[in-house]
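## retry 2 of 3
previous attempt timed out at serialization; input unchanged, resubmitting
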Amino acid sequence: MGDEVQHGVIRPRGIAPGAGVLGVKALWMGNVEVGMLWAAGFDVDAATGQFYFTGSRRAHAISNSWGISYFAYDVGAFGADFESVFVAGLSLPGFLDPRYPGVLIIQAGGNGGPGYGTITGPGAAPGVVTVGASTSTHFAYVYTLMGMTVLVSGGGWTSDEIISWSLRGPAPPGYIKPDVVNVGAFGFTAAPVVLNYALYGGTSYATPLTAGVAASVLQVLGRTADPALVKTILQSSAVPLRYDVASQGFGRVDAFRAVSLARLRAGRTAAQYELVVQSNSLWSAYASKYGFLRRWQWCDNIRAYMLWWAGTDLQPRFCSLHVGVSSRVDGVLFFGDVPQGGSRSITFTVRSPTNKTVSVSASPRQFAVDRTLMLTRSLSLAPVAPNNRAYWVFTLANLTADA
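## retry succeeded, writing output
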């Protein structure tokens, strides 16, 4: 990168200067799904009212700075809810059309931390790149140079920390989220002309930053690159921040390392050497555990919703996940459900993009049940109520009680 200087005016080139930005109107019920389909290269046949793939994507990466945290929305639990299943389907090549190459989706994980399991939909979906928020003190440095006093309170106010309100995993199905983190507390962004710039934050800020890095990777690999490859490059090249994986995922996105790894994968030279970690365990276990929910979502719930709100028909090629899904790779290692006293095995690959010899070591980690606590509650459903729910609030008292 670098800045362009014309007539004494500095114009920052920004991340992925060769990429274009396509704005899609959404964030209204019914528009989100239609907007993503349109960006992914779908359109509606005026004669039949059905969505069809046009043959080419309008966007090669979709950046979503929004999410669903309303409890009534998580039918099937986040990860198997309507929106998570929808974006997971969009990420899969061949799922909606045999010619469809899939699309890379970068998704904000939400600002519901610091509790574990605070990931929501559709950030809980496999296949998408879910982004959490890390810290940066660059804004304070800039303000100090401007003679302004910067007052901050609370812990974590150094660079490369995970901000307290960033989502934490795991996702309800059990796999790790977020995938990566990026600066979300805080950074500068464009503002109306009178202000020129302003501070912004949240996983909604970290997500487009990550999309910019993904665009840089795509510029190296080419537009036909598999979304799963781009995702694993972002994961494998991220910088660990000394947090557990449920807080940081693979770590903070590093543009230089990501592009270096992409260059090596493309057979080009790079100043930084990186490895790629890939496994089919996430998709394989997810397909096994949630196949029936995906079938209901795609061939009943999603299809009915599209007819109801958008007046269009979206018919997938398969109601269930097709056979090829189990071979889809990701950086996440997921064993699925392991019964007490049982075992599960998975395979993963550490891939060197060149003929350079590298040393890889792995150390075992054993998990044991410390104790169990069973909480029960009875409820009755009123005759006039179509549904009901019960919620437990876990506190220090009921989690440390003898059982």
